[in-house]
C-alpha cells in the first residue's frame, strides 16, 4: 500500500488536511497506522475528536508508535477517546489473513 485509499472529495478543508498529514508523517509505520484509521474514520470524527487528533499529530512519530504498541505509557494529554479509537481500530484478536 502506497498511501490513502480514501478520496478527499466531499471533505471540508480541515479534514482534507488531516487526511493528507496522516499519510505523510515521515515514519512509514505511523503513516500506515494513522492513515488507515483516518481513511475509514475521518468523516465520522466530530470537532472535539478532530482537535484531539490534530494534537496527537503534533507528537513525534516514535512516541506515537511507542504508545500504540504499548512500549511506553501514553501521556494523559494524548490518552483521549480518539487515541483509544485508533488503538482499537488496529487491535486484532487473531493474525490477519492477507
How would you briefly describe this protein structure?
The chain is mainly α and 98 residues long. It is built from five helices and no strands.
> Helix coverage percent of residues?
40-55%
How many DSSP-defined strands?
0
Pattern of helices and strands: HHHHH
Helix-strand category: mainly alpha
Structure description:
With 98 residues, the protein is mainly alpha-helical. It is built from five helices and no strands. The longest helix is centred in the middle third of the chain and has 14 residues, at 28-41. Helix content is 54%, strand content 0%. It starts with 12 loop residues before the first helix and ends in a 9-residue tail after the last helix.
What secondary-structure arrangement, pairings included, does this model have?
Elements: H1 13-23, H2 28-41, H3 47-56, H4 61-69, H5 81-89
Helix pairs in contact: 1-2
What attributes characterize this protein structure?
DNA polymerase, domain 1; mainly alpha; 98 residues
Amino acid at each position: 500500500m502506497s498511501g490513502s485509499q480514501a478520496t478527499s472529495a466531499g471533505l471540508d478543508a480541515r479534514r482534507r488536511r488531516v487526511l493528507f498529514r496522516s499519510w505523510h508523517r515521515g515514519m512509514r509505520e505511523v503513516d500506515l497506522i494513522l492513515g488507515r484509521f483516518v481513511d475509514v474514520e475521518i468523516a465520522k470524527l466530530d470537532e472535539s475528536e478532530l482537535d484531539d487528533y490534530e494534537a496527537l499529530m503534533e507528537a513525534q512519530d516514535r512516541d506515537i508508535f511507542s504508545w500504540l504498541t504499548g512500549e511506553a505509557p501514553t501521556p494523559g494529554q494524548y490518552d483521549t477517546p480518539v487515541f483509544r479509537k485508533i488503538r482499537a481500530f488496529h487491535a486484532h484478536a487473531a493474525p490477519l489473513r492477507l
